[in-house]
Design goal:
The chain is mainly α and 66 residues long. The chain is built from 3 helices and no strands.
Amino acid sequence: MIRTILDFFGGLYQLARLGVITRFRFQGEYWQWRLHTAFGRGYPRSRVQLWRSILDYGIWMHRIRP
């Protein structure tokens, strides 16, 4: 899914930005909601799939921001 190096680093930036905004409270309300909506049918089987899906989410955020 990664199309360019810019998308990759843009996705990492967006994930870091979201972490700062939520003060890295990964057990907080936002992150619990995000995990439930993203993985409501169960977590991916491997850590590689989990990290790939997280990075895809960051890239998606990067692409939709003006």
